[in-house]
Amino acid sequence: METRAPYVLIGSFVLAAIIAVFGFVYWLNNTGGIGPRTNYRVQFQGPVPGLLVGAGVLFNGIRVGEVTQLGLAPDNPRFVNATISVASATPVRADTRVGLDFQGLTGVPVVTLEGGMIVAKSGEPLTLIAEAGAGQSMTQAARDALRRVDTVLEDNSGPLKDTIANLKTFSDGLARNTGKIDGILAGLEKMTGGGTPAQKITYDLRAPQNLGPAGKTFSASLAIPEPTAVAMLQTQRMLFSPVGDNPGFADFLWADSIPKLVQARLIDSFENYDIAHAPLRTSDLGQADYQLLIDIRRFRIATEGETRVEIALSARIVDKNGKVIASRLVETSEKLDKVEPAAAVAAFDAAFARIAKELIGWTVQAV
Asked: Quick one: pLDDT band at residue 31, thresholds 50, 70, 90?
């Protein structure tokens, strides 16, 4: 039996292959491949290390073509002529800047085109002149910079040697006079108030202990809020009247600000009188039946006339409704023989003891 060849099938396959080839060629030259191209001549005024035929051409960072020809300029062997082929739609102008860039870790060179506004005259071949030094790589630039530095050092070797010698002389002088320099710096530091600050010494106010037997105890609860005072009294420093320089008290500090210290020691005094009915602070839980409100008038050392310690308190007792049921001014002073911290604190203890006893007796009778 004779075998029949499928001529129709073979002919259809061959025809399809021919059509596919023609389609690929059409795509390559128009849509996705080479397409319409324009050639431009580029002249580099120096070496172009690593540039090869087939290297890419970038316009504003976008690949638009490649290098098609390289050669030395016949009239000047220092120049390099190159021909680039780029897509015809690339807006190459007569003033388009040309350079050489090195991309990637291996430094593959590509021709770069940027900008341009001047349109070349029609019919004239367009030659683009690369900027001077466009082919200089980073390595070459570093070598040139080091070469220039070496030249500067060589030209100024004498002055540099003299400068180093002067520095050595100056450092030797500093070494010989280290002690004097330390003394000068210490004096400047002391004059400007620098250096390690002096350690402050803290002093406390003592509450009276021996208040005698409690003849009458408190039948109602009492609270002592923090006393009020002018801003000058909101301090831990020792206050003087009139204000003056008292170097012996430069490092003096009360254990707390004067209002808080008076509040704490008044509460201690009331506790020493009747521990079972000790007064409260306003921050404690509950509401007291009465409050002892204190305003500090004076808490200072007076140096006019006889030197003395002065304490003056304005006291008021108010009930839950805010009604003042009693008020009085309590003040005293204590002679101070020697104006120094320890003696001053002892005088304040004695004056405060009298103030506390008087306030306790008056408060007990009022509430």
From this structure: very low
